[in-house]
Structures are given as C-alpha cells and as structure tokens.
Automatic annotation (TrEMBL):
Domain RNA ligase: 186-371
This protein's name: RNA ligase domain-containing protein
A Pfam family: RNA_ligase
Listed Gene3D superfamilies: DNA ligase/mRNA capping enzyme
InterPro entries: RNA_ligase_dom_REL/Rnl2, RNA_ligase_DRB0094
Organism of this sequence: Monosporascus ibericus
Length: 382
C-alpha cells in the first residue's frame, strides 16, 4: 500500500488545551494536531500533512517555518515530525482547505465529472503530495562499494517489481479498523527499529529470471546458486555483494543463499536488519552485532504473503530469527479504539530499550497494520 502523505480530511472534534489560549487540539481520524484557536470546527474539511512529509521551501505557504528548514536530498524544506506543546502531542500539520486553490480546483473537476456527493468521497481518497511538491522524508543508508567509496545513485538497481515494498498503514489512518476487524484474531509482534531488508530466491526455470538485473563480473558471485538466483535488497534497491556491507554479511552469517537454494522455491523473506551500526543502534545491540529479523514471507508465484503461522514455521525450519512475537489475540480483546492501541504500543523492546511499537497481522494474512509508540516518536524526533 502506497503511503498517502497529503490528504483532505474531515475534522472530527476540537478540544481546548489546558493552559493554552492561542492553540487547540484538532482530531482528524486517529490523528491529533495542534492548530490555532478557532481555526477549525468539527465537520470542516482540511488538508492534512502526515508525519515525514517534507514540505518544499519554495512554497510560500511554509515561509513561517523557515527557521526550521533543513536540507534533504539537496533541497531545502521542512520535515513534519511529532511534537509536544503544552503537554499535548501533535502529529502532522493541518491547514485550511481554502489555502490550497489547486486542491479546490481538483474538487471542482471531480464534482463536474461525478456529482457533489461522490466528488467529496473521491477527494478524501486522493493523495496530493505530488500536486504540492511534497516528498517523503526517509533516513537512507548510503551504498558503499567494496573499496569503501560511495556508490552513485545512478548505479543503484531497483528491487524487483514482483516483490512488494515493506510499508504498512498506521492505525491512525484506519479509524474503522476496530469495527471491521474487532472479532478477528491477529498475530501481535514487536516492531523493531532497523533497516528494511529483503532476501529473495528465483529458480532458474522461472520466467522471472529475465526480469533480474545482470550480475556483476567481479569475483565469486554468491548470488548465482546452482538452481537459481539469490539476492539481497534494502527497502527500495538491490544490494550487490560488493556494496551490501551488513546486509550481505547478515545473509551469509545465516547461510541464506544456501538455505533458500535448498528450499528451491520462488520466495522472498522480509524483515529488519538490526545491529550496532544500524539506525544509531536504537535497539541497543552490543558492538559488532548485526542480524536479520524476519517478519514476513512473500510467495512470489502465488503473489501473496504467507500466513503469520506459516512464516513463523518457515523461519524456524530455516534456523533464522523472527521478530519477537507477543502472541495471538482477538483484536477487540486488546484494544477497542486508537487511543487504547497506542497505549499498548508503549513498552520495552528486545534489549530492554523503549520499543518502536507493534504490528498486528490478521491470521489469514488478509490485513495488517502498525502502531508506533508516541513516546518513541518524540524521543527519536520522528
């Protein structure tokens, strides 16, 4: 599911903030934003900029944020992060719809083509980051060659298109999740703070072999197995063995090329690469430790994620590490609303440090979502 950074939302409620005369807490779906007093009323449509939106400095509507601009991928702008004001957590930025004539024009066009009622529904389902020049802020790991030199972006190979990117919807964007899925059983796991890692194997007799990038010519190619092709990816790009660093080191440590070759099926394992050199080591691993923690298995031929129990069993048979499993529960038994699941997300991670949050996967593999701890977001500036 592609994340929508900029959307039109309906204000659910407005609440005063104790001790604050000039600001209020505004609820939109499962999110709460701080806005100017009297700026919004319940029922208003507004433009919501989600956490990790990178707002372009060239847009004069963000001039008031100029003292907080940063440079990201060579451009100046503002990164939307969680914040706390007067004891109130604010996640995202909410702006009046009237301040965005380009979105209003899109609404008029939708109304002409679909009628008023359908136009509003379609408007609220549309992502407007492209129209407004907003990008997603991502902490990226620089690719490094075997000689220690940075790899050029033009040299990077995209992850194969037949493997989905790892990105799950946040619970705040699913306000009706407890009504729709409250009676269903979910696997609850700890969300680990690492770098997204995917390993895959494609058999020689698969037509997908023609879609893979050619292997390099330097040295022995571990990717070339007798019966197929093994490779390693980060969130979006392949990691050649000469550039893979901790990605490939973790794959080899776990004998993944050989194990997936012996499995002899078209499959991708996805998880978190964690360790002392990854993401400032928020998980608190000892110096020199790096490993791959699996959270999902993608059946390439059937184009589906395996059920949580199937993945758990496969990980065990392969002798790999699974992200910590809290248990299996009926969703309604552990939370009845967004506030309760956010409270549950607070907790301790694998090494006694504050965890990032939790992930809930329906046992048939049909649906999943994540809940990020608010205190984690504030602590790590996200």
């Amino acid at each position: 599911m592609t994340r929508k950074l900029v959307t039109v939302r309906k204000v659910a409620a407005v609440h005063p903030i104790k001790g604050a005369d000039r600001i209020e807490a505004v609820e939109v779906d499962g999110w709460t934003c701080i806005a100017g007093r009297g700026q919004f009323r319940a029922g208003d449509l507004a433009v919501f900029f989600e956490i990790d939106s990178f707002l372009p400095a060239g847009d004069p509507r963000w001039t008031h944020l100029a003292d907080k601009f940063i440079t990201y991928t060579g451009e100046r702008g503002f990164r939307v992060k969680s914040a706390r004001m007067r004891g109130q957590i604010s996640q995202g930025i909410l702006e009046p719809l009237d301040d965005f004539p380009e979105i209003l024009a899109a609404w008029v066009d939708l109304e002409i083509r679909h009628g008023r009622r359908e136009a509003e529904r379609l408007l609220r389902e549309t992502a407007f980051e492209g129209l407004l020049g907003v990008k997603k802020f991502e902490a990226t790991e620089t690719a490094v060659t075997a000689t220690g030199e940075p790899a050029h972006k033009s040299d990077q190979i995209p992850m194969p298109e037949f493997i989905p990117r790892t990105d799950q919807e946040r619970v705040q964007n699913l306000p009706d999740v407890f009504e729709k899925w409250g009676e269903e059983i979910f696997q609850e796991t700890v969300k680990m703070d690492g770098s997204s890692m995917t390993v895959y194997f494609v058999r020689n007799d698969s037509p997908l072999m023609d879609k893979l990038a050619p292997l390099g010519t330097e040295g022995k190619q571990t990717a070339a197995q007798p019966n197929g092709r093994f490779d390693v990816c980060s969130r979006n790009v392949e990691k050649p063995e000469s550039q893979g660093r901790y990605f490939w080191a973790s794959a080899k440590k776990n004998s993944l090329p050989e194990k997936l070759s012996r499995l002899n099926r078209n499959i991708a394992l996805q998880g978190e690469l964690c360790g002392s050199s990854i993401q400032k080591n928020f998980e608190g691993f000892p110096l020199g430790f790096h490993d791959f923690f699996v959270f999902g298995a993608w059946d390439i031929d059937e184009r589906r994620y395996m059920k949580p129990k199937e993945t758990e069993d496969l990980v065990g048979r392969l002798g790999l590490k699974h992200v910590p499993i809290v248990g299996y529960h009926r969703l309604g038994d552990i939370a009845r609303n967004v506030q309760e699941i956010l409270a549950r997300a607070e907790g301790i991670g694998i090494n006694g440090k504050k965890r990032e949050g939790i992930v809930l996967k329906q046992v048939d593999g049909r649906f999943s979502f994540k809940t990020i701890s608010n205190s984690y977001l504030l602590k790590h500036g996200e």
